[in-house]
Amino acid sequence: MRKVLTYGTFDLFHIGHLNLLRRAKELGDYLVVAVSSDTFNAIKGKKCAIPDYERMAIVEAIKYVDEVIPENSWDQKISDVKEHDIDIFVMGNDWTGKFDFLNDYCEVIYLPRTDGISTTQIKKELKLK
Length: 129
Ligand code: C2G
Hints:
Helix content: 25-40%
Structural class: alpha/beta
Number of helices: 5
Bound molecules: [cytidine-5'-phosphate] glycerylphosphoric acid ester
Number of strands: 5
Mean pLDDT: 97
Low-confidence stretches: none
Distance between the termini: 42 Å
Shape: globular
Radius of gyration: 14 Å
Largest sheet: 5 strands, parallel
């Protein structure tokens, strides 16, 4: 069984997130998604419209997703890959190169982002802060 792992905030879940999760699942048989906690997002300088437990529940309900784990730190990826026996790490290509260190542990694939949609844009359009 080829296991795939990806990370994200998935705030105001949109088609860009769905396309990423669908394509990540197409690369293997089992998809683990690490969803950024509110505490970690504060470290990332991101303020979420949707709290972490709701973002996790939404991602968990996506048919491509087999397992959801919390993302609490930048430093958990190597242990996550090892603990979950991951074959492929996937991120959108806005992260290209940032996680190449994981090549020592698994395949690293950066997928093209979906153009024309982002949480930031949605917030602007909804006039959310
Ligand atoms: N994404 C995409 N197309 C978009 C928007 C997002 O393909 N239009 C992808 C991103 O590239 C990422 C995933 O969807 O792979 C989740 O995006 P975010 O929720 O913005 O994730 P981010 O805040 O970048 O968190 O440790 C890694 C971080 O947790 C990533």
